[in-house]
Automatic annotation (TrEMBL):
Record-given protein name: dihydroxy-acid dehydratase
Source organism phylogeny: Eukaryota, Fungi, Dikarya, Ascomycota, Pezizomycotina
Listed cofactors: [2Fe-2S] cluster
Gene Ontology CC, one term: mitochondrion
Native organism: Orbilia oligospora (Nematode-trapping fungus)
A GO term for molecular function: metal ion binding
The keyword Plastid appears for this protein: no
Length: 356
C-alpha cells in the first residue's frame, strides 16, 4: 500500500521503500515539514492529487509488485472519499493488462529492503513511466508532477533480478483477480500469483470463526492429500465485525504443509503476508445471508481463476431447503461503536465505507 500511495503522489519520493532505520528515512522526516508548508502555500489539496489517473497508477503498481488484496478495499474507500468512481471491475481491467513482475515475498524471494537497494520505489516508478504503464502527469505532494520528481532518478542496475523485464514476467497478467459465481454474486477477491495453480476443486469444511478452524487443524481434522476448501465465514465487515485478516489460518495451512491440498475462502480478508490458494472479500457476507452462509461440510466447491468463477456445486432444490431453515445470526455487539459500525458498513466490494 505504501508503494501504491507513492505512485499516487501522496507521499514523498522514496518514502515507501526507505528502510525505517535508514538515513533516508530520517531525512524524509525533516523534508516532510517543508513539503507540507509548500502544499499550504500553493493551496494544493488531496483532491487535486487524488485524480482518476492517480488511482490507475496505484492499481498498476499493486499488480506489478504482487501487492495485498487489501489494496482493493483501501483504494475503493479512498476514491469514494474524493468523489472518484472506482469499482472492483476496474481492478480486474487493470489486472488483465498489467503483468506481475516483482519477485517479492511472500510468494517470491526478495523483500522491500532489496527494492531500496536497487533504487527504491522511484526507480520502479521510472521504469513503469518509461514503459508507458503509469501517468507521469499527476500532481504530487512535492508540488511537482510525478514525471518531474523522477527526472533525475537513475534506473535499475542492469544486473538486478528483483523486478523482471516486461518480456519475462512472473505472470503475464496481474495477480489480483475478481471472482463471481454462485458463492459470490457480489464479487470476491483472489491473490493468484500462479504459484498455487489456477483451478482448485475440493470438499468444503465450514467454520463460523477463524479460531474454530485453528482448533480443527490442531486436532488433525484437515488431512494431507484430501482436496479441501476451508470456508471461514461470519468474519466479514458486519459479521466480524470489521473484516479481520485471516493471516493466522492461512499461515497455519502453509505451516502444516497443506498449501497444495487446501484452499481457503472467506468473507473476511487477508494480510499482505498471506499466500496460497486464497479467496476473500466474499459478497454478500454470511451475516447478510449470502450464499456462503448456506455451505455445509462435504459440499463441492470450485475456484477457477481462469474463468474467474467461485461456485458452490449444490443443486437449487437443496439450496432452497437450506435457505428455508436459515436463521440470521444476531450481531456480535448490540450497542456501542462496533454495533453502529456493523449497522452502517457497506460490503467489501464497495470498500467497507460507512457513509454510503
Amino acid at each position: 500500500m505504501a508503494t501504491a500511495i507513492e505512485s499516487m503522489g501522496m507521499s514523498l519520493p522514496g518514502s515507501s521503500s526507505n528502510p525505517a532505520d535508514s538515513q533516508e528515512k530520517l531525512d524524509e522526516c525533516i523534508t516532510a515539514g517543508a513539503a507540507i508548508r509548500n502544499l499550504l502555500e500553493k493551496d494544493i489539496t488531496p483532491r487535486q492529487i487524488l485524480t482518476r489517473s492517480a488511482f490507475e497508477n496505484a492499481m498498476v503498481v499493486v499488480n506489478i509488485t504482487g501487492g495485498s488484496t487489501n489494496a482493493v478495499l483501501h483504494l475503493i474507500a479512498i476514491a469514494h472519499s474524493v468523489g472518484v468512481d472506482l469499482t472492483i471491475d476496474d481492478f480486474q481491467s487493470v489486472s488483465d493488462r498489467i503483468p506481475f513482475l516483482a519477485d517479492l515475498k511472500p510468494s517470491g524471494k526478495y523483500v522491500m529492503a532489496d527494492i531500496h537497494r536497487i533504487g527504491g520505489t522511484p526507480a520502479l516508478l521510472k521504469y513503469l513511466l518509461q514503459n508507458d504503464l503509469i501517468d507521469g502527469g499527476i500532481m504530487t505532494v512535492t508540488g511537482k508532477t510525478l514525471a518531474e520528481n523522477l527526472e533525475k532518478v537513475e534506473g535499475f542496475p542492469k544486473d538486478q533480478d528483483i523486478i523482471r523485464p516486461l518480456s519475462n514476467p512472473i505472470k503475464p497478467t496481474g495477480h489480483i483477480q475478481i471472482l463471481r459465481g454462485s458463492l459470490a454474486p457480489g464479487g470476491a477477491v483472489g491473490k493468484i500469483t500462479g504459484k498455487e495453480g489456477l483451478v482448485f476443486k475440493g470438499k468444503a469444511r465450514v467454520y463460523d470463526a477463524e479460531d474454530l478452524f485453528i482448533e480443527s487443524l490442531e486436532r488433525g481434522e484437515i488431512k494431507k492429500g484430501d482436496k479441501t476448501v476451508v470456508v471461514i465465514r461470519y468474519e466479514g465487515p458486519k459479521g466480524g465485525p470489521g473484516m479481520p485478516e485471516m493471516l493466522k489460518p492461512s499461515s497455519a495451512i502453509m505451516g502444516a504443509g497443506l498449501g497444495k491440498d487446501v484452499a481457503l475462502i472467506t468473507d473476511g480478508r487477508f494480510s499482505g503476508g498471506s499466500h496460497g490458494f486464497l479467496i476473500g472479500h466474499i459478497v454478500p457476507e454470511a451475516q447478510e445471508g449470502g450464499p456462503i452462509a448456506f455451505v455445509e461440510d462435504g459440499d463441492d466447491i470450485i475456484i477457477d481463476a481462469e474463468t474467474r468463477k467461485l461456485d458452490l456445486l449444490v443443486d437449487e432444490a437443496t439450496l432452497a431447503k437450506r435457505k428455508e431453515k436459515y436463521v440470521q445470526k444476531p450481531l456480535k455487539y448490540n450497542k456501542g461503536t462496533l454495533y453502529k459500525y456493523a449497522k452502517n458498513v457497506a460490503d467489501a466490494s464497495h470498500g467497507c465505507i460507512t457513509d454510503s
